[in-house]
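Here is one chain, start to finish.
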Amino acid sequence: MPSTRFNVTVRRLSTGTDWHITLFAADAEKACERATDRARLACKLTRAKIAELHGKGLAVFRVVSCEVSPDQSRPIF
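Its structure:
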């Protein structure tokens, strides 16, 4: 399945910090899911801590925008 490059902005709600993440994914939903996971890692939050906060009804991250990138080139390593 071909991948598309997405530009995703994820916000941590408690601090208002934004992460601008570019990644390849099959669709926008998967891109948002992966970008949120990268933001969690940047904040050094464990999956258990996120689950605990969600169990209390607290949102931690929110996807602010998810757009297809106009630049679809792949990096050369």
